[in-house]
Every structure is written in C-alpha cells, then in structure tokens.
Amino acid sequence: MNLNFLKLRDWKMKVLTLNVHGWMEKFASKKIKQLAQVIATKDYDVIALQEVNQPMKEGMTEHKRFIKPSQEVNLVPLKKGNYAGVLVKELEKFGKYYFWTWSANHIGYDKYDEGLAILSKTPQNSQVINISQSTEYDNVGTRNILKSEISIFDKKWLIFNGHFSWWEDPEDNQIFKNEWDRAQIALNENMKENIIFMGDFNNEASTYNKGYDYVLKTAPFLNDSYTIAQENYGYATMKGKIDGWKTTSDSKRIDYIFVSDKLTVQKNHVIFNQDNESIVSDHFGVEVIILE
C-alpha cells in the first residue's frame, strides 16, 4: 500500500462513525457486505465503530494489519468472527486495506465480547482508557474509550472512539458525567492536538443541560461537526425503539463527531438512514469531511 498519496494531495480528512450493532443486527452478514461496499466507495481515512462484537466461544485469530492496543484490564484476544475483522476482509475484496484496532468493553448479550474499533489507512498507536467506575468484564456498565494516534497528511491526529452511558441511571446517578469526566483527563492532556472524538454518546442534542451540553461546556476546544459544517444533510442518528431506547419512538441525534476548534468541517452527513445509503444497523452513521 502506497501511503505517500496521503501526504502529497490537498488533504480532506474523511471520517465515519457508526454504531454497527454487531452480530445482533438482523441479516448482519448481508449488511456487513453493504457497509464494506459503501466504505470502499466513500474511501474514508478513519472509521470509528461501536458495538463491535465477536463470539466469546470462538478460537483466537490474527490479522497482519491488526494493531493490538495497550490495555491494563480485561485484555481480550482477537477471535474468529470479530465483526471488525470480517469487515476488514470484505474491504480487501474491494482493494481497500485498512489498519485496525479493537478492544472489548464488556460481555454483551451473554455470548459476545463487545467493544470498539478504529480503522485507518495508516498505522495506529492505540490505547484503551477505562472511563467507568466498574472494571468488571461481566458488567455491561463497564465502559472504555479507544484512543489512537495516527499520522495522515504529514499531520498527527488523535482519534477517540467511545460508547457512553445515558446521562443517569434509574437511581439518578449521573453516569455519563462520571464517564465524560474520566475521558476528559485524556482530552485535556492533548487539547492542542488535532482531535477527532467520535461515537455513540447516548445523550440527545436537544435535551437541555445534560450530556450534550456538558460535553460542550467542559471541552470548549471541541466543536460539534453538525453545528459548524458548511453543508449539512440529515439530523437524527436513530429512529424508533432500539436497544437502550425501548421506551421512546422519537427520532434522536445521539451519535456525534467532535473536532478541534481549529479545524473546519466542510460536510456533515447522516448516512445509512435509507435516504443516504441502505440501513445497516439500528443506528445511522455520521460522515464528515474535515479541512484545516
């Protein structure tokens, strides 16, 4: 793979975030092929995926472009049937070769190792950071963020990928606030870098004085790509009753791409919502083109 073109051309950073719903999604094998085809066509530079799972009972496997992240607890080996691994192999059929990293957050649906993945056109230096009070692997409340340092266009980028909890739990504990406060430690150490923070934040943009507002208040060096984009298409990133949102049928914007305030966003599009590419998950994706 020739990486020089990523340094020489006038650069536009193309990124995607998507909660894929993993192998829990109906017709997942068909949809992962559809996802690969769109990624290959769009030619994203960096991709952040959430709810990336693998069957716990499968045997271990390897991939030559898999980058093992540094992780202090709950280090789970890569296994056959890893959703991101299958996606990467589908992309190879289109002549697209991505480096990728993956880490598990917790056990999902009693049978999966469920976590986060970052795909990139260039190698990564990746780290897993725990942001939840729990570190127990069998606790669905155990949450990490995945941080990758990537060099593209002769520039250093810090990519963060997260799948956060709701603002509060049934006992009114502000779990999102606690998670974001921990994530901010890593952010504040690198606030002068080119940062892209993507993921499923499980907090609505339209809900006043909760998760979304808290992010903007506590990280003023980040902008929501939706609010600063020169061109916008679409709004909601989920519709109807889905896992985690069974008590509501309203459309919501809960998936975001936050970027350093020194960067310009040319386009912010909702994708995989049927209007803009076929649905592949219970979430819609967000694709962004970033300029300096």
UniProtKB/TrEMBL annotation:
Top-rank lineage group of the source organism: Bacteria
Molecular function via GO: endonuclease activity; hydrolase activity
Stored SUPFAM superfamilies: DNase I-like (SSF56219)
Presence of the UniProt keyword Nuclease in the record: yes
Organism this protein belongs to: Tetragenococcus halophilus (Pediococcus halophilus)
InterPro entries hit by this protein: Endo/exonu/phosph_ase_sf, Endo/exonuclease/phosphatase, TDP2-like
Name of the protein in its database record: Endonuclease/exonuclease/phosphatase family protein
Keywords per UniProt: Endonuclease, Hydrolase, Nuclease
Domain called Endonuclease/exonuclease/phosphatase: residue spans: 30-283
